[in-house]
Design goal:
By secondary structure, this protein is an alpha/beta fold. The protein has helices at about 30-40, 45-50, 90-95, 110-115; strands at about 1-10, 15, 40-45, 60-65, 80-85, 100-105, 125-130, 135-140, 150-155, 160-169. The radius of gyration is 15 Å and the shape is globular. Bound molecules: NADP nicotinamide-adenine-dinucleotide phosphate. NADP nicotinamide-adenine-dinucleotide phosphate (NAP) binds near residues 68, 69, 108 and 110.
Length: about 170
């Protein structure tokens, strides 16, 4: 099972301000394009709640929301919106059993940290925006270990950000 993390980041490595604002991100189309290609997305419960009804659930694939308490969300679940728990390994096994071989991991920081901690992120596609926040929610949240990456490609997007693609070593 392959995990590809894709997030919009600032030049100083944040995905949102401390109060959760990431309206500076200009990569909606690229976000939707990867989701459409892969067919499923995995997000943290806080990201889901923040963008519920606005961005999520994305149409045309399966939206997995990671939470410690999936039962609490049973009434809200549909074919396209599923709430899953367990360890990161168990969550991925669950997604794989439902027919996927790749999942797009799309933040926020806490879920990214959980998967980084478990050594389960295979690739990162980072859309680096021309902005420094000074403080905010970090790409890998509370994860505080080194992580070595191997460069795959870099591409300038005319909307003003740079797309950097890495493999996690
Ligand atoms: N720039 C970008 O591309 C981008 C993308 C996505 C999000 N964001 C920003 O990120 C912010 C939210 O990030 P966040 O770090 O606060 O929260 P988050 O990662 O979206 O969600 C955290 C929640 O995910 C669940 N979770 C995380 N690890 C888990 C584990 N090991 N087992 C079970 N459940 C687990 C927990 O849900 P429960 O509490 O329900 O157990 C936890 O409270 C938002 O402000 C959003 O704007 C930015």
């Amino acid at each position: 099972m392959k995990v590809i993390l894709q997030n919009a980041v600032t030049l100083d490595g944040f995905i949102a301000t401390l109060d959760g604002d990431s309206d500076w991100a200009a990569d909606d189309e690229e976000f939707a394009a990867l989701f459409n290609k892969i067919g499923c997305i995995l997000i943290g419960r806080k990201t889901y709640e923040q963008y519920k009804g606005d961005i999520f659930p994305l149409a045309g694939g399966v939206n997995y929301v990671y939470t410690h308490d999936p039962e609490k969300w049973t009434a809200e679940a549909t074919q396209e919106l599923r709430f899953i728990g367990g360890s990161p390994h168990e969550a991925l096994n669950n997604i794989q059993k439902q027919g996927f071989d790749t999942v797009m991991l799309a933040g926020g920081g806490e879920i990214n940290a959980s998967f980084a901690q478990a050594g389960l992120i295979d690739e990162m596609i980072l859309h680096v925006h021309p902005l420094l926040l000074g403080k905010g929610i970090q790409l890998l949240g509370p994860y505080n270990q080194p992580l070595n990456l191997e460069f795959i490609s870099s591409q300038f997007n005319p909307k003003g950000f740079v797309q950097n693609h890495y493999k996690v070593k």
